[in-house]
Amino acid sequence: MNIKTLILIIINSLIALVIALLSFSSYKQFSNVLNDRILLQLNSIKTLKQNQIEHLLKSEWERFEASELYSQSMDSTVLKLPDSIKNSNGIHDFTAYHVDKKTTIGFISNSKRGTKIKVFDYNKIKQILLERTGMGDSGESYLVGEDSRMRSQSRFYPNKTPYTILVKTKGVNNAFKGKTGRGVFKDYRGIDVYSVYSLIVIGNLKMVILSEIDVDEVTIPLKELKERLVGLTLAIFLLAVMLSLFLTRIIINPIKNMQKSLRIMAGGDYNQTSEFIKNSKEIKEMFDALANLKASLQGAVKFSDDIGKMNLNTNFKPKSSNDLLGKSLLAMRDKLIEFRNNEENTRIQSKRMLVNGMENERRRLSRELHDGVGPYLTSLKHYIENRVENEVKKTEMKKIVDDTISEIRLMSNALMPASIDDFGIGDTLTNFIESLKKSTTITIEYEDLTQQESSNITNHQAINLFRISQELINNSLKHSNAKNIRITLSEFDEFVSLFYFDDGIGFDINTVKLGLGIINIKERVEICNGTITINANPGNTTFEIELPIEL
User: Fold this and answer.
1) Where are the alpha helices (DSSP H) in 309-447?
2) 3-class DSSP state for residue 501?
3) Measuring CA to CA, which of 45, 174, 422, 495 is 20 to 30 A from 226?
């Protein structure tokens, strides 16, 4: 998901959530206020009608008791009262005893002078109940008797006798339990209504008075409000989408431009010169920072290029104390300068050592020619000049020539044994060591474990192994005071191993100044891609050298 879509989703989701919460809160608050107002108004109407009815009945009762009429003021053909009712003083509900079940309320008074009975003019109560001011189109107030049957005319069923309408609603049940309240529940028609109720008790008369109005009528403003809120919500949401699109365009376009620039820089091109729209202070600062980064990288790249070309005198200054790249490049340059200087010193030292080695070798060769071949040639010259005829002397001359040839052959083998090419390193070392044993008192043991017939040791490796062995033996003879030398040359499938041991005084490999011989040994091992392990303990000096077999 790209950042534009993400911003649109987040912003519009938040806006939609806020609008929905505000709309729901407003709707809920308006609904609660409307409910309270309706129920409060209905309660006022119900209370007024209840007071009017109670006052009317009490006034009529007082006049009835004050009258001197002791005859029954009723039609006995339509109203049949039981004796239990006739013997009970007070206001009574005669509806159940009416032949046609018309709502009838009457007064009964018993005294020594006789029994007075009067039917109350119910039209007076009817007028009070039919007064519908403030009750809208569906509002009504009505009475319900103890038998849960209606005692007043229903405005919804004008042709029905009230007594035939059964009213067992929540309000009626609560009122007969002595509770006065209000709420929203279904009425006798099964329709949701706002209702307030209370119990009227006057003497023997008990009726519930209810004032109600249909929920559908009351909620018309709520429905209109809901429609308006939905329309307003959609309008605000569409406006929010448009604004968020505009906002994301302002934010995203610079980010896309920066992304494009960074991709170009990631590809190694730091010389791009694209100009981008900077529509805010923050975005301008962001692109300025990108430009500074680009300039810093350009400087670093140029400096790196100069270092790559070994232009180590190029000037470069890090952008700040936190410029790790710049510091690293400077450290690299300093290391290269140091390496170049060391390399130059090493090169000069190597040349010096090479020259010294050549001079030493020439000096040794000169000494051996002078001390070895020279006397033989001098003696031979003496015999020739004196034209020796004696056979004994001629035999001595022949021996001198043979010794001269042997000495020259020995010197030649020391310089480059011809047997390496003919017989391999194993036999060459055997011959070399056998010849050394004749001229030294040190015990030298040599074990040849090379593969004579199918050896994979190259001529290059053989020459270096021979020179390494020469150097090791020469160091032992000159410096170690050793009494025993042991050498093993082994050939395996993947490498050739040279093991060298002497029981001399040893040396400290960490502090001793290594001579030309040890340096030559290490260099020869290195050029053959081999490894060397040195242990220079007194009485147990060892060199373990391994060269890989080159198949």
Assistant:
1) 324-368, 374-385, 391-415, 419-437
2) strand
3) 45
Sign of CA dihedral 158, 163, 166, 170: positive
- Burial code (b: 16+ CB inside 10 Å, e: under 16) for 408-417 equals eeeeebeeeb
Sign of CA dihedral 240, 245, 250, 252: positive
∠ CA 165-106-78, rounded to 5°: 70
Over the stretch 254-263, which tens digit does the pLDDT of each residue have?
A: 666 766 776 7
Residue 477 and residue 442 in contact, taking contact as beta carbons nearer than 8 Å:
yes
Tell me the per-residue pLDDT of 148-204, one tens digit each, with 9 for 90 and over. Answer: 999 999 989 989 999 999 999 999 999 999 899 999 999 999 999 999 999 999 988
Query: Given strand 90-93, what is the order of strands in its sheet?
Result: 72-73, 114-119, 105-111, 90-93
Q: Do 488 and 499 touch, CB atoms closer than 8 A? A: yes
pLDDT (mean) for 519-543: 90
Q: Which amino acid is at 304?
A: S
Cβ-defined contacts of 330-335 (< 8 Å, 24+)? 332/307, 333/303, 333/307
CB burial of residue 54 (10 Å; 0-12, 13-18, 19+): middle
The predicted-structure confidence for 28-76, as pLDDT tens digits, reads as follows 777 788 788 888 989 999 999 999 999 999 999 989 888 876 555 556 6
Residue 497 β-bridge partners: 490, 546
Helix pair angle (391-415, 324-368), 10° resolution: 180
